[in-house]
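Appendix B. Worked example

We walk through a single record from start to finish. Start with the input: the chain for Putative CBS domain-containing protein, Cupressus sempervirens, length 138.
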Amino acid sequence: MDAHGESTTMSDVLTAKNADGSWLWCTTDDRSVYDAVKSMTQHDVGALVVVTQLEQKSIAGIITADYLRIIVQRSSKSTTVGDIMTEENRLITVTADTNQVLNAMQLMTDNRIRHIPVVNDGMIGMLSIGDVVSAVVR
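Next comes the structure step. The output line below is what the pipeline stores for this chain.
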């Protein structure tokens, strides 16, 4: 990668992060918030992508560890992920061919987000602010 992150694409960052492109997901109604947070804790991740249809990998939204505050206010075993997720129409994403890693970092900083889905025709991966910073350092 160049010194300024100007030619590295999000696809390059995903490849450096995880060659198989895996990411954690659930659907809007197949998991309680309790189960989703349990999965996030078991896999040591800070965000879980919510999809509408697994076959199409159609992204519906995202839940993050920030929702732990909500768990204190609601019963997490009876609340579905779809009830609390950030919905797709408010979701900040990048495409796999987005270049300029520094622009992605700025986007994450400006929107105060720590996780950003990478999409093309559907969901292809998830990057954290740590992944983006590591790409800049490399």
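Two observations about the output. DSSP finds six helices and seven strands in the chain. The CA atoms of residues 78 and 87 lie 19 Å apart.
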